[in-house]
Amino acid sequence: MRILSYFYYAFLALTCLNYREEGAWIDVNGQHLYFVMRGPEDGKPVVIVHGNGGSHKSLRTQAMQLAKAGYRVYSPDSRGQGANPVLDEYHYADMAEDTYCFIKALGLNHPAFYGWSDGGIIGLMLEMAHPGTLGPMTVCGANLTPDCGEDFESFKEWILEQGTPLALMMLSEPDIKPESLRVIKCPTLVTVGSKDLISVEHTRLISDNIPGAELEIFEGETHSSYIKRSPKLGRRMLDFLRKNNY
Fold it and tell me: 76: which DSSP letter?
């Protein structure tokens, strides 16, 4: 199956040659951020936000799938990550505000949103702070608190080994009360792998507290196996967007 995924990824790359990445810089919320665009200029906007320590390259598979389907995809590098200079301190609330300001600066009207891991946390916090900003939202492998899986102690040891401000942020953040998610009104798809770092029970807590949210559990998948170089999540996202007339 992994070999088939690589063939699919190569085929997708060939069919998306007309939608090469267009890179640019933008000043938002006191940050000078790099981002890339892909897809037809008149396509409906989709904002994609990567996970901890990643960049716009992390979710290229989904960006290409969306671009091929006719969407205009915007993939910013979160503050202190990707092409952006490293910072001494990080907070999810700051990154959520960066993304909100990014959307407003580009004049995107209720864009669809896709966030993986930290990107999912950013999406939740953005819509909590600014309800009604986003269109259909897909949140994958997100968490409300650091202690969100059965193997948290091993994950904590890994964070301490990394020792960077970006990694250490995950020891104390996020701190989201489940009931605070109830202000989110946009159509929301919440996903997790059955072998994810984030437990299914914790993920269900997220979906249960977002009105009308859909929960998708990818059986046998880890935190990243159905995301990186895999078409599975992209196909599910496209079904979700079409279901919501987007």
Answer: E
87 to 4, 147, 152, 172: CA distances (angstroms)? 39, 25, 26, 17
Residue pLDDT, tens place only, 174-204: 999 999 999 999 999 999 999 999 999 999 9
pLDDT tens for 144-175 read 999 998 788 888 999 999 999 999 999 999 99
Q: What is the tens place of the pLDDT at every residue in 109-141?
A: 999 999 999 999 999 999 999 999 999 999 999
Structure tokens at 183: 């202000």
Residue 140 exposed, middle or buried by CB count within 10 Å (0-12, 13-18, 19+): buried
Please report which residue ranges of 106-189 form alpha helices under DSSP H: 118-129, 152-162, 165-172
Q: Largest Cα–Cα distance of the chain, in whole Å?
A: 47
- CB count in 10 Å sphere of residue 243: 12
Based on DSSP, count helices (H) and strands (E) in the chain, helices before strands: 8, 8
User: The whole model's pTM is what?
Assistant: 0.92
Q: Of residues 1 and 42, which shows the higher confidence score?
A: 42
CB 116 within 8 Å of CB 59: yes
| Contact of 244 with 21, CB cutoff 8 Å | no
Q: Per the structure block, which two tokens stand in for 177?
A: 């009360």
Name the amino acid, one letter, at 104.
K
Amino acid symbol at 179: E
Backbone angles phi, psi at 184, to 5 degrees: -75, 120
